[in-house]
TrEMBL record:
Residues 1-79 are annotated as: Disordered. InterPro entries: Ribosomal_mS35_mit, Ribosomal_mS35_mt. Residues 119-232 form the Small ribosomal subunit protein mS35 mitochondrial conserved domain. GO terms for cellular component: mitochondrial small ribosomal subunit. This is Mitochondrial ribosomal subunit protein. One of its GO terms (biological process) is mitochondrial translation. GO terms for molecular function: structural constituent of ribosome.
């Protein structure tokens, strides 16, 4: 209902909403007229404006970028999303790696002795391709004590005793890890400081060298793995020797049996079986029993016992 508001009368009212100026009325009318229609059947009117604007249907011919299509098929439609792909942050990081790889290709140079030489410490990091994970801050360092040239043999033994269970005598590596700090840089710095402190303690002449204590390696459990003997391997020559040996044994056994130099087990089995068959063929006579007298018969006559066996 739209009333005139001139001369101090009632304010303009549009669908229960008071308007103080004509501009608001025209603005509201323009919004209603330009509101998208949800369908052809329903028509938006000032009394019944649509609550949700219509969303255009996706085009059935929409294609993926060439970088995301399967190899060998550049015109395939959208694949079914199986929820097994990495996140969008992970794809962004992969794209960054692809861009940097092309830029770093210009700095490529042949490897020499200086570039191949690396320090004794080997660092390992873990990334989850843009996703937040508690294990992403963990840093692991491995090194061989023999590569630390600043230590003598006696100091190296002291260093191994200070390291303790982190030393593996089978592989000869020391493995240490840290995830106590919220960033990888802090964990790496802590590990580097710990290794420097261990080396300084091993080189300190005033500190205890633990020379009277043996190196404890009880924490390493080596499971014995028996190896298959090479002399047991069946080669072509070994196979021919085994076949000839088997044939020779069969021929010798046949000669002994034919010459009656050994009792044949087959003949003994056949003789015993024939005796059992003849025994089963003999007739079995039925047991003759005297007929019982008529009338009352006691328990003794029918073969019952007194005591536990009662009627």
């Amino acid at each position: 209902m739209l009333d005139d508001a001139e001369g101090g009368g009632a304010p303009e009212v549009l669908d229960g909403i008071p308007t103080s100026t004509p501009s608001i009325h025209h603005h509201y009318t323009d919004i209603i007229q330009t509101w998208p229609h949800p369908s052809n059947d329903s028509v938006a009117t000032p009394r019944n404006p649509p609550l949700i604007p219509s969303v255009p249907e996706p085009s059935p011919t929409r294609r993926l970028p060439a970088s995301l299509l399967p190899r060998g098929n550049s015109s395939a439609a959208d694949p079914v999303y199986e929820e097994d792909d990495i996140s969008s942050l992970g794809h962004a990081e992969l794209d960054q790696h692809r861009e940097l790889r092309e830029m770093l290709a210009a700095l490529h140079r042949p490897a020499d002795d200086h570039t191949l030489h690396r320090g004794p410490l080997r660092w390992r990091y873990t990334t989850y391709m843009g996703e937040q994970h508690p294990a992403a801050n963990k840093v692991v360092v491995t090194f061989k004590p023999a590569d630390i040239t600043a230590l003598t043999d006696a100091q190296r033994q002291t260093f191994l005793k200070l390291v303790g269970v982190r030393y593996n005598p089978v592989s000869g590596l020391v493995k240490m890890s840290c995830e106590s700090f919220p960033s990888q840089a802090q964990n790496k710095r802590y590990l580097a400081s710990t290794i420097r402190a261990l080396i300084a303690e091993s080189q300190d002449p005033n500190a205890d060298s633990f020379a009277d204590l043996p190196l404890d390696t009880r924490h390493v459990k080596v499971k014995p793995r028996p190896r298959f003997p090479e002399r047991w391997l069946v080669t072509e020559e070994r196979r021919r020797e085994l076949d000839e040996k088997v044939k020779k044994g069969v021929m010798e056994e046949a000669e002994r049996v034919e010459g009656n130099r050994v009792v044949s087990g087959i003949l003994a089995i056949e003789a015993a079986r024939q005796a059992e068959v003849e025994k089963l063929e003999e007739p079995v006579l039925p047991r003759a029993t005297a007929p019982l007298e008529r009338g009352k018969v006691g328990r003794r006559e029918v073969g019952q016992l007194w005591g536990s066996n009662r009627w």
